[in-house]
Give the backbone structure.
Amino acid sequence: MSEAESNNPTPPLVRIRGLRFRRGSRWIFDGVDLDIPRGKVTAIMGPSGTGKTTLLKLIGGQLRPDEGSIEVDGENVHALKTPELYRLRMRMGMLFQSGALLTDISVFDNVAFPLREHTRLTESMIRKLVLLKLEAVGLRGARDLMPSELSGGMARRVALARAIALDPMMIMYDEPFTGQDPISMGALVQLIRMLNDAARISSVVVSHDVAETLRIADQVYVISDGKVVESGSPAQLRESGGDWTRQFIQGLPDGPVPFHYPAAPLREDILEVSS
Amino acid sequence: MNKKTVIEIWVGVFMALGLVALFFLAMQVSNLGTAYTGKTFDVNARFDNIGGLKVKAPVTIAGVEVGRVTGIRYDAEDFRAVVVMGIQEQYLGRIPEDSFAKILTAGLLGEQYIGLDPGGSLDTLANGSEIAVTQSALVLEEVVGQFIFGKAKEGT
Amino acid sequence: MIGHLAKLGGWGLQALTRLGRAHLLLLPMMRGLLDILRRPRLLLDQVFSVGVLTILIIAVAGLFVGMVLGLQGYYILSRFGGETALGLMVAASLVRELGPVLTALLFAGRAGSALTAEIGLMKATEQLSGLEMMAVNPEHRVLAPRFFAGFLSVPLLAALFSMLGVIGGWMVGGGMLGVDQGAFWNGMQNGIDFREDVINGVIKSVVFGFVCTWIAIFQGYDCVPTSEGVSRATTRTVVHSSLAVLGLDFVLTALMFS
């Protein structure tokens, strides 16, 4: 998008062009162009089921697009061979909706996992790093707990500590605000912002929680029916004229996305039954 | 003793148990513990009827196993069965040449085996020798037939 | 009518694609052997969870099966004076057939279903995806150790089953029913050939171990990532493993003991 590029002279971190992706007979993405700028929080929003998680998986190379290209830091993700793809993934962190911690090892071991797998650091070095990462998310004291003993919000924070273990250049957040109480939500929002600014990690947040997302994002893309419907800063979106965007942002029950599931007129249905 | 060590110990116990079981099966249950694995020399014998004799059946003298049947074939010239026996090497030159080979049955339901009755000759069996005198297996139908025939004869 | 045929055809195609996917999984799992050699701890933990924890059921089952064989065998053999063949009968039944087959069936029920549930749950809670995004290959890291653990454990468990079965038969035959000790063991040793019986039994259990573990892991990996999907996959593991074991047993027996 020219707007994003003119604001940001450095090349975008993620560049998506002409993305088309199908699952079964349904086109999840039908010609999507996106730029994710460096050093900023970019939000991708839309109603449930529009394939936002799928987009993250496409960026991470877990899924292959039917058409189009995805470039991360200048490299075409799907043209990479497996070892190179793995190297790229080490520079991307991902926070899954449920945290996706490994349930049979402790919090400490979960955060240490990427370090033990991909680096040759000594155990004492790893211990220091893990404690620092846990400290950043405020859970250093919980390091010996098992994932089953954590609340949802705490599990997500541990997963975040794990995602930043290798100091990635970007983090993708999959529905980070879903199902959180206000306090955990506030903590998470603050962490996302802090990591983005202080640690210069670019952030991609996929969510349908309008309020929190608009509070934290620098740039927003709204996706519906497989296409980008709107894009811009949160302020621009709030003043936007688009019917669809307005319904979404203000949370109106009826509008371009109808309230009623398609059906025959009410009179016909009721009279049919009684006669 | 932490959890890791406990796991290691148990896996070690498991592997040991498994190997012990395999060893038990090999030694106590199968014939590995008692099978003869040394050298043998071949001795032939011809029979009119070998009955149910099979390859690997024991060959005994005075009830003690001295070898095994290694091959059975039919000689179309002779119309008899040729049985090849592998006798243990330690008996080379120790079994008289005129020994008598019989096909016997172990117990009532048992498998058939060859029993050698030693003769008196000073010449002994060597590799490739053939035993001259043999007695074929008892075939049940023939015995019964003979019995009935005999009884019928008596009656007349 | 056409509708039913179409459904049958569709089901057939689905089964074929599943079979294909199962085979595609084999190569990455085998390649995981390298990872295991570098980090043997992975294999060790899995041998514990898959092998050691199955010892109890195998041992108890083996003992009881052997004891029943001793009892039943005695009653039948004594009818025509063949009690001395009891040792041979018990040992032959166990080493050639019951050891490998029953062990595989029990393994599928206890360890196979646990494997399927564990892997299916990891899939449903996105742990496998998480590993992929952390640049760790889940087929090497999670699936391969479990596969080799099962493959290694089943033959050992089968040997254990057979050994305890023979001992059980001996306890019942010798202790309870008065069969002569010497006849019991001698008859057995004369009749059981190491190469033909013991080794063939081991080969059978190796094949069964391969198949049961493979099925269990694949069903977990391929399942629909919901709680219902996992539970259905677990059932499929037990059913498919059992049928595969019984079918393969027939084929192997025909090949080996004809």
